[in-house]
Automatic annotation (TrEMBL), chain A:
Residues 136-145 have a biased composition (Basic and acidic residues). Keywords: Membrane, Transmembrane, Transmembrane helix. This is Uncharacterized protein. Residues 136-159 are annotated as: Disordered. The keyword Transmembrane helix applies. The chain crosses the membrane at residues 20-46, 53-74, 94-114.
From TrEMBL, chain B:
This is Protein kinase domain-containing protein. It comes from the Bacteria. Residues 4-277 form the Protein kinase domain. It comes from Acetobacter nitrogenifigens DSM 23921 = NBRC 105050. InterPro entries: Kinase-like_dom_sf (IPR011009), Prot_kinase_dom (IPR000719). SMART domains: S_TKc (SM00220). GO terms for molecular function: ATP binding; protein kinase activity.
Length: 159, 662
């Protein structure tokens, strides 16, 4: 068993303990966080990218969306009622979940833009080659010249 | 020659003027007034601007019957009994000979002569002319009834010019000695003064005989055989009743051995009291058999042997001739030569002797006979005229095989060997001249023999079928004609010039030091039109003709294919424009420069290779690009993830700030 795996085990154990403690002392926060971060939790299990890159990328977006409800919950001292009230307001979870989607969307859009720009430069290169080929074709004959000196010689030989 | 003569437009203006040709600034020829031929040459009316009394004619030797090569030298010969040639001039582009007009009817129309009148009025004056010719070292070779003119009364006759036609070319057979009669008219050569003496003797005999029946210049073999067997005097004068003195004189003049004929000086004071004895040729008592013929003289042996070489070679090989020469004729020196040849013959197994050996046997047997080579008889100095005659359409004057035989004889060293064996003077120099011409003209093939015609006769006009009628004997005149009225025929094998025009221009250029150009004609390098352009450009600068617009326009359309040597279209277009501009200014040298530029072609070729390589590379790249679909690389994806994360972080900070502010 490697050191990292052992560290993972110990970390999981710490995570479990932290979750338990949070459930015991901060049930409102936990509830709100779990619901708002649901897409991340789902993504955590389905993300196949290295080091959970997708989850890490979506995290700041989620975070941005979760700041306002968390702040409201903090103002009401983390009561479960406020958490429930916030959760029942459809705008809050939907905003949170959409912000996760926004993260994914931004990534895809960035990829698309990258792709398109690459395609553009590609086509530019292709057009440049085509243009140069046409230029050469216009400038030069391609068949061997008809009256090469050898041909003239044989002609003269007959004279 | 004025430069503006060469523009085609003024060419027309000139042709209106060309009926009046001025020679040496004093003789004005009227080319529309044709007079009766003189000495077989077309004659035209001419006036002497400085002397109204002078009666002159202008002779225009046709292309295929050119003036003698030594015409200028002959024109300097003066004698009171000769129609003097005052000028031989080609300043008008064609040869014109200005000559005294005949002062009476030709002898062909006046044939009743007594012996004494003949001696005084014909033989003495013509002997004086021949004496002058002999002193100048040349021959006349045109003594025949239609070229001797009788002023009437007791005045001596006048001899017509001999320079206006090839030597002995128009002589009827009976006026020619055997050494000339054996050859076809073109192959007779200038001969010796003894041949002129023979002609004079023959003319006398003809006049005494009443002047009947002129034979044709070409002679059937039967007549020759008769003259060989019986001797020329017997054949020509045997039927006449002559006084013994005149008979002796004529027998001497008509001797078949040229050394036995009197010299012109001996005839100057000839009279009925002066006696001549003719040497008879040594004749054997016991004849020798060659084939079916029995012969008694070396001349007859040579003649029959030439017709029957195998039999002759057998006789030589077996020593029969050697014994016959020694015992029957007492010719020990000839017999010794024959022994040497016989030894040479026994070494070869062939029954027939080689042409060279046969030639030598004949030359040894009778050193006064012409060169014999594979059935043809000719004199070396006639080779130029033989070449001319071989180009004549129909070629009746020289057999179709003649050029080949001449080339063969020259290449086998036959000419020089004959020159050493013959007793006729001048053949050695003639052989060397021919060899020099063969070398200078790079005549290596039978087809090139035509070049000799121009190289051996400086007055020979161009023999191209297109312009032979124009008698163009100066290179600039040919250029002018090409520039003006000439329309080229479209043919795949020739350019603007045909073989004759090229040979003519090169031979004229050769005389001016353009020798190295002969190589070009036989062929390395370019298409016919290009070669012609190069030659004409050289001629243009050599003769400083100024612009040759007509020539340039005629050549231009045919140069387009040669521009295809350049594969670059821009270069080609530019060269085409330059070529057209050069043609428009009539600058042939510039045209040649534009079209023939090997360095530029080589550069174009290397550029073309570079372009082809680039094209190949680009095509490969194009194919590679076509296959490769744009794909998002993991690094790009990682980068985009970072970008998106950063944006998210910004959004989070923004959201936090917003919450703090509100």
């Amino acid at each position: 068993m490697t050191v990292a795996a052992r560290m993972g085990h110990s970390m999981k154990w710490v995570h479990g303990l932290a979750c338990g403690a949070a459930l015991a002392w901060l049930p409102g926060y936990l509830l709100l966080a779990v619901v708002l971060f649901l897409p991340l939790i789902v993504a955590y299990f389905f993300d196949r990218s290295q080091n959970q890159a997708l989850v890490r990328m979506m995290l700041p977006y989620e975070f941005a969306a979760a700041i306002s409800p968390m702040y409201q919950l903090w103002l009401s001292e983390g009561s479960v009622d406020t958490a429930l009230r916030l959760l029942t307001d459809p705008v809050v979870p939907i905003t949170a979940w959409l912000s996760a989607g926004l993260g994914w969307f931004v990534l895809e859009a960035a990829l698309l833009v990258a792709k398109l720009s690459k395609q553009y430069s590609f086509n530019k290169e292709k057009n440049e080659i085509t243009r140069r080929l046409k230029e050469i074709a216009d400038e030069w004959d391609h068949d061997p010249p008809p009256s090469e000196v050898g041909g003239a010689k044989s002609e003269l030989g007959r004279r | 020659m004025a430069e503006d003569d060469f523009s085609p437009d003024t060419g027309d203006g000139r042709s209106a003027d060309s009926d009046r040709i001025t020679v040496e600034d004093r003789y004005v020829i009227d080319a529309t007034r044709r007079l009766p031929d003189l000495a077989g040459c077309p004659a035209y009316a001419v006036k002497d601007a400085l002397s109204a009394q002078a009666t002159l004619v202008a002779l225009a030797p046709p292309a295929f019957q050119p003036a003698r090569a030594e015409a200028s030298q002959m024109a300097r010969v003066r004698s009171p009994h000769l129609l003097a040639a005052h000028a031989v001039d080609e300043a008008s582009g064609s040869i014109w000979i200005i000559c005294d007009a005949p002062n009476g009817a030709p002898l062909s129309q006046n044939t009743g002569w007594s012996e004494s009148a003949l001696l005084e009025r014909v033989i003495q004056p013509i002997a004086a002319v021949l004496h002058a010719y002999n002193a100048a070292g040349i021959t006349h070779r045109a003594i025949r009834p239609d070229n001797v003119f009788d002023p009437g009364g007791r005045a001596p006759v006048k001899l017509g010019p001999g320079l206006a036609a090839p030597p002995a070319f128009l002589q009827p057979g009976q006026f020619e000695p055997l050494s000339s009669l054996l050859c076809s008219p073109a192959a007779r050569g200038a001969g010796t003064i003894a041949d002129d003496v023979f002609s004079l003797g023959a003319l006398s005999v003809w006049l005494l005989g009443g002047g009947s029946g002129l034979q044709s210049p070409t002679h059937p073999d039967t007549n020759i055989e008769e003259r060989i067997l019986r001797g020329s005097f017997d054949v020509l004068a045997g039927h006449l009743s002559l006084s013994p003195e005149v008979a002796g004189l004529l027998a001497a003049m008509l001797a078949d051995d040229p050394d036995a004929r009197p010299a012109p000086a001996d005839l100057l004071n000839v009279s009925e009291r002066k006696a001549f004895t003719a040497r008879k040729q040594v004749s054997a008592d016991a004849p020798i058999r060659v084939g079916s013929a029995q012969v008694r003289t070396t001349r007859a042996l040579a003649w029959h042997g030439a017709r029957n070489p195998i039999a002759l070679a057998n006789l030589v090989r077996r020593g029969v001739i050697e014994r016959w020469l020694t015992h029957e004729l007492g010719l020990t020196a000839v017999a010794a030569r024959m022994t040497a040849i016989g030894k040479e013959l026994t070494m070869t197994e062939d029954a027939a002797p080689s042409p060279s050996v046969l030639m030598e046997i004949i030359a040894v047997l009778d050193p006064s006979l012409p060169l014999h080579w594979q059935g043809e008889w000719f004199w070396i100095d006639a080779i130029g005229m033989i070449a001319t005659a071989s180009l004549m359409s129909g070629g009746v004057q020289a057999g179709p095989e003649f050029p080949r035989l001449i080339l063969e004889a020259a290449q086998a060293g036959g000419l020089l060997r004959f020159a050493q064996a013959t007793s006729i003077t001048g053949q050695n120099i003639a052989a060397q001249t021919v060899h020099a011409a063969l070398h200078n003209g790079r005549v290596e093939r039978v087809a090139d023999i035509g070049r000799l015609t121009y190289l051996l006769n400086p007055g020979q006009s161009c023999l191209s079928p297109d312009c032979a009628g124009k008698r163009l004997s100066a290179a600039w005149a040919l250029l002018q004609w090409l520039n003006g009225e000439f329309t080229p025929t479209t043919s795949g094998t020739r350019g603007l010039l045909d073989r004759q025009m090229t040979a003519f221009l090169l031979a004229r250029g050769d005389r001016s030091g353009l020798i190295e150009q002969f190589g070009n004609e036989s062929g390395d390098g370019y298409l016919p039109w290009l070669k012609d352009l190069a030659l004409l450009a050289q001629m243009q600068s050599r003769y400083q003709t100024g612009p040759l617009l007509g020539v340039a326009r005629k050549i231009l359309p045919h140069l387009t294919p040669s521009l295809k040597l350049w594969r670059n279209r821009t270069t080609r277009t530019r060269r085409g424009e330059e070529l057209a501009a050069a043609a428009e200014s009539g600058d042939l040298a510039r045209m040649a420069e534009v079209v023939v530029d090997p360095r530029s072609v080589a550069k174009d070729r290397s550029d073309w290779l570079v372009a082809q390589n680039e094209m190949r590379r680009l095509t490969q790249e194009q194919i590679a690009l076509g296959k490769k679909l744009p794909d998002v690389s993991p690094t790009l994806r990682a980068e985009m993830l970072q970008v998106a994360t950063a944006l998210g972080a910004l959004a989070a900070i923004g959201s936090l700030c917003l919450e703090v502010i509100s």
